[in-house]
Amino acid sequence: MITYQPGNPLMIQSDMTVLFEVDHPAYAEIRDVLSDFAELEKSPEHVHTYRMTPLSLWNAASAGRTIDQIIQLFHKYSKFDIAPNVIQEIRAQFDRFGILRLEREDDRLYLISRDPAVLQDVFRFKSMKPFVREWPADDRVEVEARDRGRLKQELIRIGYPVQDLAGYTSGAPLDFSLRETTLKGQSFSLREYQKQAVDSFYAGGSSRGGSGVLVLPCGAGKTVIGIAAASEIGAETLILTSSVTAARQWISEILDKTSITSDQIGEYSGKHKEIRPITVATYQIVSHRKSKEDTFTHLALFEQRDWGLIIYDEVHLLPAPVFRVTADIQARRRLGLTATLIREDGREADVFTLIGPKKYDVPWKELEHSGWIATASCLEIRVSLSGQERVAYAAAEARVQARLAAEAGQKLDIVRALIEKHRADQILIIGQYISQLNALQALIDAPMITGKTPMKKRDELYERFRSGEIHCLIVSKVANFAIDLPDANVAIQISGQFGSRQEEAQRLGRILRPKAKGVQAYFYSLVTKNTKEQDFAMNRQRFLTEQGYAYHILEADDFEDPETAQIDAQKVVSLVTYRNKKERRGVK
C-alpha cells in the first residue's frame, strides 16, 4: 500500500530527481540540506526540480553529509514512499567515495581498496593498464607518483572518485602571522565561519586536508580565508587570480593583514614578472601563448619555487592549461576558492579531482541573516521589443536573436528611471555588449570600464567610486569577478552571457559586501519578455534561487514615464507581491 502525506513538499522520483513544492513553511530548512547533495535544475514559481548526481553525492560525502541525514530528510518530508532504487543508488555513491584511496608507503605510491574486487574491476579498463607499476597484493597496486593526477582523472571518468591520502610536499618554509590590528588601524580577527573554512581545509595538517574547494558567497571574505590557510601551512605560496585588479587586491590584503613585508610578495602579470615567496599571478598570464601551436610560456611558474600551497581564486574560471599542469603537481597543497562550483564548460569533475572535493560550503542566506553579507532584493524587470525590433527579431537567426533581445531599446529608458530612483546610492550598471554600453553612456553620461580601459584608468575609476566621488559606474564583464567595491548597493544588469548561472551569482556578489546598518542592496535584471533572453534568465537565476533568493517579476509597463519616474523600490516589491497574488488566484 502506498503511503501518501499530502502536506509534505518533496516527491523523490526513481530517476534520482526530487520535486520540491516551495510554498511550504520549512522551505528554507529543506533547501539548505537538499542543495548540499542535489543540483537545482529548474526553478519555476511553485515546484523546483533537483537532481542527485554521482558528483553531487560525492561532494556531499566529502563535506561531511551522511546517508542518514539524507534519508531522514526524505522520510520526514516526502509526499510518497521512496523507491528502493533511490536509496540503493545514494548508498552506492557514498560507498564509492573512499573505496579507492591513494597512499604513500616508503616513497612508493599505492592505489588501495578496501574491496579487492573493485581493483580487479577498475583495471579491466584498457585506459587503466598503463598506470600499473606493480601489483604486490590483492588490495593494492603500485602506481607511478608522476601519474597521480592523471590516474585520478581517469578513475573519476569511469565512476570511481579517489580519496587522496598520499600527503604533500612541505614546500619552502615561510613563517608569517595574521595581524590583530591591520595597517589601516582596524582590529582584525577571523569570523567563526572563516575559521571553520580554514580548519576544514587544513585538517590539522594531516593528509586528509591540504586539497579541496571552499564555497562562500562574494563578500564573505574568501581572500582572508586564503591568507589564513597560507599562514597555517607556513610555506611559500603561489596565488592565481582572475585579473590584475584582483591580484593587486590580494597583495593589498596580505600586506594589510599579515606580517608579510612588501619585499616578500610579488606580482606576476603582463607588466610585472616578480617571483617571490608569495607570488600572485593571473590565469591570463600563466595560460598565455603566442599562437595555438606555441608552448605556454609561463606555466614554468608552477616549478619556479618550492611552493607549499597553490591557491586558485575563482576556481570555477580555471583554464584548461592550468588543469593540465595541476595534474602534474598533485604533491603540492591546493586550495580552491569560489562563490559557486558551477562551470559553464561542465568540468566540475576536474575541479573535484585535481584541486580537491568541496570541503566547506555555507548558504548565502545564512550569512545574510548573520549580517556578514548585505541583504539583497532581486527584481527582474521585463521589457518589450518595439514594433521595428520585433520584425528584426523574427527574421534573425537564433544567435542574432539573443543579441537583439539583449539590446532592446526600452532597457535604456528603464535604466534611466532606476538611476533617478537611486540617485543617492552607489550604482553599478553591468552589461555584455559594448555597443549597448556605449549607447547607455551617451544617454546618462557616466564613466565606463571595459576590457580596453587601461589598468591605471580602471584603478582610478574604482577608487573614485569607492570614495563616493562617482555614484554611477558602467562596467562590462571585466567587473564580473573579484572587484572590491564595498559601497556598491545597486546593480543593474542590462545584458549577460546567455544562461550563465555563474555570471549571475558573481554579478549579485558585486553588491553583497556588508553595508551600513539599514542600507538595502538591490539587484535589477532587465529581461526582454517573449524572447530567448527570458529563457536564458530562468537558467541564470537557478543557482541564486537555490541559495534562497527570490526574483520578483515586474513588467516595465508598471513604471511611470522614465522622464519623471520616482520609483520606490519597496513599493516595487509590494506591487510585485500584489501582482503575484493575483496571478495565483487566477485574476488577470
UniProtKB/TrEMBL annotation:
SMART domains: DEXDc, HELICc. One of its GO terms (molecular function) is DNA binding. Residues 203-359 form the Helicase ATP-binding domain. It comes from Sporolactobacillus sp. Y61. It catalyses: ATP + H2O = ADP + phosphate + H(+); Couples ATP hydrolysis with the unwinding of duplex DNA by translocating in the 3'-5' direction. Pfam families: ERCC3_RAD25_C, Helicase_C_3, ResIII. The keyword Ribosomal protein does not apply. This is DNA 3'-5' helicase. Belongs to the helicase family. RAD25/XPB subfamily. Residues 413-567 form the Helicase C-terminal domain.
